[in-house]
Write a structure and sequence with these properties.
Helix content: 10-25%
Distance between the termini: 84 Å
Number of strands: 29
Number of domains: 3
Shape: globular
Structural class: alpha+beta
Strand order of the largest sheet: 7-6-5-4-8-1-9-10-2-11
Largest sheet: 10 strands, mixed
Strand content: 15-25%
CATH architecture of the largest domain: 3-Layer(aba) Sandwich
Length: 590
């Protein structure tokens, strides 16, 4: 009897070992606000330096029609990781709640069930970092800025007690080092790694090590973007070198995909500093930008490499989607059935085993914008506006063909409308916001707006102030800050990069806070500083009059202010800058 049990267990062990030997590793590299042409392999811009990404493309397939599910960070990431369109579970935009996503089964959870070690590195952006393990990740190194990372393993590959860790490394370099450490930890077993670089997303923060690679005349924001992309390229090289060292190159499938198009803010204003605005990346020849379902918002860099399985030097022109990452991973890992997933396994198509397009049709809905692509046809709806393009012959979406082909538009709209009934909430969403009406005016209807006006009309710009994690409105001369976090719980802040205040000076603020105990802090950036630096920040104190105040101790000119508010809505009734003696220097009007 013991012998029978031994034989069964031995056979089971051999079976599991054989299965593990057949399971390929999967690495998903997800970049951030990265325009479609901004890799050297695209052959569009000559100022890029991406030899490792170029080699990645040369060793596999560069998908020229690679799409993501949304033109914005949070929903795009949710769609990728769930393998289902995020609007099915109510995560339409960055301001949507995460309850639907939290109930989804991610790629990582599916890979765990298939016996994979799983890892998350870099930008999470789908709730608190402490919740990452609940979404299927065994190892995590959550880092997207100079702040400390939330980790459970170190860059030397050792286990770490869950908590914050700071190495002092530039965040992109730290993420690359974490990726090679993860490979070291799991090279003898199948693994799934999700590496999400926060680049070239603002704040633009490349160190001189990378900036020095791009001398000469160019917009400073372009230089920063090129430097950050170059840093990611170094990371791709380090990862591939590690795979080679471990002799698992041909056992590893790599996806390199952007999360959405670059934010241009229409005129690509080269504002000082690395804060909100254009991130220096480019989308042309694609039309539009982040926040639009035009090609510039959703067509992204998309490279798939699996040496020995996917033939090298491919340029694959059929449409593929970020939804295909989950479906492909499930299929090649031997995980459970993928019937509920929205993507397809694209490996047979890239390997030449199956001819034709992987998708008959692709759908999108993002707030009041919806789109469908069927073959070369694309119908784009924005509020009450409708556009029909042949995106094969007109990749720049310059000619609206809806008048010439009304029957095609009607058929596609009916099909798109049917798909939207499967979403939460169902149907088309009307009432496009003023920001996107202005973008559609400029990019799709040819109505121009001057750079000065564009700068003043940055999304949510009121009196020079813009918001993050919040939305601004003005009423009766007061600035209303509407917290958009849902359950993400990221404190809102407002910023103004149009100030010019000679220090020292005092900031005084009066208003109402939903959470007055949370406190207010101010950060400032000087004229000769490329970005905010550590130490140039302090908390405001509440005076006897009920106002919040802070003496900014700068001795040079301050050109950028950032005011961090506690969670919840807030109203600023008065905001002014005074000399140390109490003379008003500037009164901010809302």
């Amino acid at each position: 009897m013991k012998w029978v049990v031994f034989c069964i267990l031995t056979g089971l062990g051999l079976s599991l070992s054989a299965r593990a030997a057949d399971q390929p590793n999967i690495i998903v590299i997800f970049t951030d606000d990265h325009g479609w042409p901004d890799i050297g392999a695209a052959g569009i811009y000559e100022d890029l330096k991406t030899p490792n990404i170029n080699q990645l493309a040369s060793d596999g397939a560069r998908c020229t029609n690679g799409y993501v599910t949304a033109p914005q960070c949070v929903p795009s990431r949710a769609g990728l990781l769930a393998g289902r369109d995020q609007s099915r579970f109510g995560l339409e935009t960055n301001g949507s709640g995460l309850e639907g996503f939290n109930a989804e089964e991610t790629i990582a959870e599916r890979m765990q069930k298939a016996g994979y070690a799983t890892g998350q590195i870099g930008k999470w952006h789908l709730g608190p970092a402490k919740e990452i393990p609940s979404h299927g990740f065994d190892d995590f190194y959550a880092k997207n800025s100079g702040q400390s990372a939330w980790v459970n393993f170190g860059l030397d590959g050792s286990d770490q007690e869950v908590g914050l860790e700071s190495t002092g490394m530039y965040h992109l370099d730290a993420c690359s080092a974490a990726a090679t450490a993860f490979i070291d930890r799991h090279s003898d077993e199948p693994f799934f790694l999700y590496l999400a670089y926060r680049a070239p997303h603002v704040p633009l923060d490349a160190p001189e090590k990378y900036l020095s690679r791009f001398p000469g005349e160019m917009p400073e924001r372009r230089r920063q973007a090129l430097a950050m992309i170059s840093a990611m390229d170094d990371g791709v090289g380090a990862i591939r070198e590690k795979l080679s060292e471990k002799e698992i190159t041909e056992k590893t499938l790599i996806f390199f995909i952007g999360d959405n198009g670059a934010p241009l803010k229409i005129h690509k204003i080269d504002a000082p500093g690395g804060g909100p605005g254009w991130d220096g990346s480019l989308n042309a020849p694609m039309n539009g930008e982040k926040g639009m379902l035009s090609e510039g918002g959703i067509r992204v860099p998309y490279v798939v490499t699996w040496p020995g399985t996917i033939p090298a030097k491919q340029v694959f022109d059929e449409p593929v989607s970020s939804l295909d990452v989950a479906a492909t991973s499930v299929a090649i890992s031997g995980a459970e059935d993928s019937a509920l997933l929205d993507g397809v396994n694209i490996i047979p198509h890239l390997a030449g085993e199956v001819e034709g397009a992987p998708h008959e049709v692709l759908f999108w809905r993002w707030a009041s914008q919806s789109a469908i692509r069927e073959g070369s046809w694309k119908l784009l709806i924005g509020g009450t506006r409708e556009y029909l393009y042949d995106v094969v012959t007109d990749t720049g979406e310059s000619t609206n063909l809806i008048a010439e082909h009304p029957e095609v538009a009607a058929r596609l709209k009916q099909r798109l409308g049917g798909w939207t009934q499967e979403l939460s909430p169902p149907g088309f969403i009307k009432g496009m916001a003023e920001t996107w009406n202005r973008y559609f005016d400029h990019y799709l209807d040819g109505k121009t707006v001057g750079p000065r006006e564009a700068a003043a009309k940055q999304p949510g710009n009121i009196g020079g102030w813009i918001a993050r994690n919040a939305e601004l409105t003005s009423k009766k001369g007061e600035l209303r800050i509407h917290d958009l976090n849902g359950k993400a719980r990221l404190a809102p802040f407002i910023a103004n990069n149009q100030v010019k205040l000679k220090g020292p000076f005092r900031i005084r603020l009066s208003g109402e806070l939903a959470n007055p105990e949370g406190g207010i802090s101010i950060a400032w950036r000087l004229e000769d500083e490329g970005d905010f630096v550590k130490g140039n920040a302090a908390k405001m104190k509440k005076s006897a009059s009920g106002e919040f105040e802070l003496l900014v101790p700068a001795t040079e000119t301050v050109i950028h202010l950032r005011i961090k508010l506690p969670e919840g809505n807030a109203t600023i009734k008065q905001l002014r800058a005074e000399s140390p003696e109490g003379k008003v220097i500037q009164r901010f009007r809302f």
